[in-house]
Design brief:
single chain; alpha+beta; 4-stranded antiparallel sheet; about 40% helix; binds guanosine-5'-diphosphate
Length: about 140
C-alpha cells in the first residue's frame, strides 16, 4: 500500500445544492485525511488553465463556464492509494453509469455537473495540488 495525496474538488453544482457537508462526511468515513481545504470561485482564466488538457474537447468552453459559475471547495486528501480510492468513491464521470453509493451517482445532475473532481495519476496530483495550495497551506499530521 502506498500513502498518496490527491486533489479533490467539490464542484460548484454540489456547493450550490448544499451537499458539501455530506460529501465531506463520505470522505472522512472513507478514512481520508483532509490536509487542506478552501472555498474559492475560479476565474475564467484559472478554469481554462486547470482544464487545459481538455482544450480541444467539444465540452471545454461549457466545462470552464460551469466551473466558474459559483464557489467550489478544493481539498488535499491523503491516504492509502488515495488517488484511485477517491476516484472509486466519486464514481464514473457520467453519473448515469456510476455505481450505486458513489458520490456522482447520488449527487451529480449531468455528465458536466458531476459534483466532484479527483486527480487521475500521481503526476497530475502533484500539479493539481500545487495549482490550488502552497506548501504552507497543507497540514500534514
Ligand atoms: P473525470 O476525471 O471523471 O472528472 O473526467 P474527465 O477528466 O474526462 O473530464 C473532466 C470533466 O469534464 C468531467 O468531470 C465533467 O465535469 C466534464 N465532462 C467530461 N465529459 C464531458 C462531456 O462529454 N460533456 C460535458 N459537457 N462535460 C464533460
Amino acid at each position: 500500500m502506498t500513502i498518496e495525496r490527491t486533489l479533490a474538488i467539490i464542484k460548484p453544482d454540489a456547493v450550490a445544492k448544499g451537499v458539501a457537508g455530506q460529501i465531506l462526511t463520505r470522505i472522512e468515513n472513507a478514512s481520508f485525511k483532509v490536509l487542506a481545504a478552501k472555498m474559492l470561485q475560479l476565474a475564467p482564466e484559472q478554469a481554462r488553465s486547470f482544464y487545459g488538457v481538455h482544450r480541444n474537447r467539444p465540452f471545454y468552453q461549457s466545462l470552464c463556464a460551469f466551473m466558474t459559475q459559483g464557489p467550489c471547495i478544493a481539498m488535499v486528501l491523503e491516504g492509502e492509494n488515495a488517488i484511485q480510492r477517491w476516484r472509486d468513491l466519486m464514481g464514473a464521470t457520467d453519473f448515469t453509469k456510476a455505481a450505486p453509493g458513489t458520490i456522482r451517482k447520488d449527487f451529480a445532475s449531468s455528465i458536466e455537473a458531476n459534483a466532484v473532481h479527483g486527480s487521475d495519476s500521481p503526476a497530475s496530483a502533484v500539479v493539481e495540488i500545487a495549482f490550488f495550495f502552497s506548501s504552507l497551506e497543507i497540514c500534514p499530521r
